[in-house]
Amino acid sequence: MNTTTSVNGCFVFKPSAKKKKTLSLEDHFSHGCESAESSEKRFKLCQDLWDKIKSDTEVLQDDLNRKILDSLLDFTRKCSSTRQLSDWASQMRASEIPTAALVLGVNVPDHDMTFQSLSELLQQSVTPHVASVQAKECGALKHLMKRVLERLMGTDVTVDDEEEEEAEQTSTPLHKSVHCSLSTLCDWYKTKTKKSNTPGKKRSSPSRDDPQQPPVVIIFKDLEAFNPKVLQDFILICSRYIERLPLMFIFGIATSPSTIQHMLPHSVSSLLCIELFQSLSCTQHLATVIDQLILTHHFPFKLNAKVLQVLMSIFLYHDFSVRNFIKGLQLALLEHFHSQPLSVLCCKKKDALLNVMQLSHSDLERIRNLPSFKRYVEKQEPQEQVNLSKDDTHLKEVCQKLIKGLHKYHKNYYPVLRCLHTLTSSLPRYPLGKQVRELHLICLEKNVWENEDYQTAMKLLRMLAKDELVALLQRCVEILQPVKSKKMKNAFLQLTDLLTKFKQLDIAAEPPPCVEEPIISPVRNLQKKTDLFQLQKTLLEMNESRRAKKLSPFEVLRNEALEFLDNLVKSHLSPPESHTLNEVCYYTSSATVRRHLNATPRTSIQAALNSPYYYLQNDRLKTVDGSVSNSAPDICIAYKLHLECGRLINLYDWLEAYATVVSAAEGNNPDSDNYGKVEEVKHARFIRAVSELEFLGFIKSTKQKTDHVARLTWGGC
Fold first, then answer.
1. Are residues 579 and 606 in the same domain?
2. Structural element, H or E, at residue 219
3. Could you tell me if 271 and 390 lie in one domain?
4. Which residues pair with 587 in a beta bridge?
5. Which residue stretches does the UniProt record annotate as biased composition, category Basic residues (predicted)?
6. Is the pLDDT of residue 190 over 80?
7. Within-domain flag for 608
């Protein structure tokens, strides 16, 4: 009888032949008995909103960058315009390379869009000769020179090493290439600009001062990442050709303009004529994006407080990238339409009302099971509750009213939110947040008027002077004026009336004299009776008399205005969870968004090694119960075997188990003598798989035993 003599080894478990069912892309938007028409409609709505987010953000980014891009275009035109050579200052600057230091901020993922827009504008209005380079492709001077020439000339450029290799490989080159030097670029530029020169007019050499000769612009997208030595040598070489080639540099800077001083010594930086350009901060970009996409009733898809907080946290504590914030918003949009069958109602009011009448019986049952709808039903009369539970036609009519109410809520919510932010953001220490998004988060979580900071803000507003309060109310009137809503129009008229009263108010008018008798009378009684009880009673009466002092007309009007705004807040800034059918518009799964956006490399690697089919899409790799097919890549087999070992892994036992699995994949006869035998090829494949696992950090060599390795990771993905 065979017995197991050691537990320190690797054991082989052959996978089952059962196959795991997978869903196609079309199936992802269908839920159980949901009709294909409904899932297709949801997919179409999701796609339309996705495209709207993409187009709106691109237009928004162009508008935000318009000012800085126009300044850069003016700078390039000025540098390429005709200079008076008789001017001594112009002669001195003509020997320098014009350089624009563009400070874009640390939101590096957003820089590509800015540089793409800049390149397109330069090519359209200033010069066709624009080249953009990145540090990762310019590790050496020859690589930087090659990339610049290739992108300016539009042809292949070879350096000396590549020419020697090509000469050895073939005597007839497959395509035409040019030598990598600025002399070649000068000759090419002279040929290109020669056609635009006036015939018969002799020119000694191309001049940067000629308006008919456009500048050659080189954009360094990520200046901090460049090798300082490579950058210095390139600038020195370019400075020698400045009389023959109208060069111009644009430095993309993520941190500070002082980076140029740290990277370039004075002997090199003195060759540059640098002008600084500062773009808007990434927080300003984000505030505009949130204002246009989230804080508006025109966009039907909404985020609850937790999801929005996750996206904001990733923005503030990771990369400051507005582009990645938009990706997170698109991810939440996709997840909402995928996981919520009733998201077919997440659209414009007109379309939503039509979709309500087309809901199936299963969709209506989903509505009856919504938590917000259950709370709504509990508040109705008994007969109405029966009708809502049994009558589908009546339920559709009620749902139409509820959808209208939800859209009215959003239409009134955002103007009142901005009015409240206008009032509180002017107060010291910003009790409800400096940005409107901070106030929005508070309103999403609970009733804002129950917040302690809200009470503090209202007390501070009651201490404002007339001019300050009138200015704030005027801004609120401007916010409410364009809103097309009956309630907001009434609020606009009432605020306008209050402003008129403030302007007509004469604060200088003296109030009528206060009645002093209630104060004097207790004092006279105090002279007659001196016991402690009577003294306490008299002092309380005096305190109450001071509180009863008549308010001035301004104070009365100020209290009236603030009371009106307080009622406006309580009427329209209730949290969305308190409104029926909010689930069709609001996405609430913050954990899903965090899991997708906060990358966990180890989990992803383990998932790939455990389930290679989902990455390689090879039917031979389909398995069940977490097992790995014997046809899987070598690293997957080695990884799965190492999971069955302890802290130390015997390499020989590991190798034998690996050879057994591979032999099964090759279709060898298990009864043959060569089955599971370690051959040179299998040995080499195993060594490579072990080396890859060591590189990924799953194992390491150990000094305890020379023929063992130590396992470093524990627990599944």
1. no
2. strand 216-220
3. no
4. 303
5. 193-205
6. yes
7. yes
Q: How many other β-carbons are positioned within 10 Å of the β-carbon of residue 554?
A: 17
CATH of the domain at 705: 1.10.10
Q: Looking at the structure, tell me whether residues 568 and 668 fall in a common domain.
A: no
Q: Please count the structural domains in the chain.
A: 3
Do 627 and 493 sit in the same domain of this protein?
Answer: no
C-alpha–C-alpha distance, residues 716 and 643, integer Å: 9
Tokens of 138: 């310019």
> Tokens standing for 594?
């965090």
CATH number for the domain spanning 153: value is 3.40.50.300
CA atoms within 13 A on the CB side of 713: 17
Q: Could you give the CA distance from residue 74 to residue 93 in angstroms, rounded to a whole number?
A: 17
> Within 13 Å and on the Cβ side, how many CA atoms surround 229?
4
Q: Would you tell me how many other CB atoms lie within 10 Å of the CB of residue 656?
A: 17
Domain boundary among 280, 302, 326: 280
Q: What is the mean pLDDT of the chain?
A: 83
Beta-ladder partners of 708: 650
- Give the pairing of strands 648-650 and 708-711: antiparallel
How many other C-beta atoms lie within 10 A of the C-beta of residue 407?
18
Give the H or E element holding residue 38: helix 36-80
Give the whole-angstrom CA distance, residue 329 versus residue 416. 24
Range of the domain at 703: 601-711
How far apart are alpha carbons 322 and 283 in whole angstroms?
8
Model confidence band, residue 644 (pLDDT cutoffs 50, 70, 90):
confident
With 0-12 / 13-18 / 19 or more C-beta atoms within 10 angstroms meaning exposed / middle / buried, residue 616 is middle
For 96-163, give the DSSP string.
SEEEEEEE--S-GGGHHHHHHHHHHHHHHHT-S-EEEE-GGG-SSHHHHHHHHHHHHH-SEEE-HHHH
Task: Name the token pair of 308.
Answer: 């929005």
Same domain, 418 and 556: yes
- Judged by DSSP in three states, 674 sits in coil
Residues 107 and 243 in one domain: yes
Alpha-carbon span 34 to 359, nearest angstrom: 10
625 & 685 share domain: yes
- Amino acid identity, residue 619? D
Structural domain includes residue 8: no
The answer to whether residue 299 is domain-embedded is no
How many CB atoms sit inside 10 A of residue 585's CB?
26
Cα 386 to chain center, whole Å?
46
Domain membership of residue 656 (yes or no) is: yes
In sequence order, the β-bridge partners of residue 624 are none
Is 669 found in the same domain as 570?
no
Three-state DSSP state, 620: helix
Please tell me what DSSP assigns to residue 359.
-
Task: Look at strands 97-103 and 177-179 and give their pairing.
Answer: unpaired
Structure tokens at 508: 């200088």
User: Which strand (E) or helix (H) includes residue 439?
Assistant: helix 436-445
Q: Where a domain ends, among 245, 280, 315?
A: 280
User: What Rg value do the Cα atoms of the chain yield, rounded?
Assistant: 37
What is the distance of C-alpha 299 from the center of its chain? 17
d(CA 54, CA 514): 66
Q: Per residue in 238-281, pLDDT tens? A: 999 988 888 999 999 999 999 999 999 999 999 999 999 999 88
> How far is it, in rounded angstroms, from Cα 235 to Cα 249?
10
Residue 196 has pLDDT above 80, yes or no: no
Classify residue 399 as left (phi > 0), alpha (psi -120 to 50) or beta.
alpha
Extract the tokens encoding 123.
């090519």
Q: pLDDT for 402-418, tens place per residue?
A: 999 999 999 999 999 99
Q: How far apart are CA 294 and CA 273, in angstroms?
A: 43
The total number of residues shown for the chain amounts to: 717
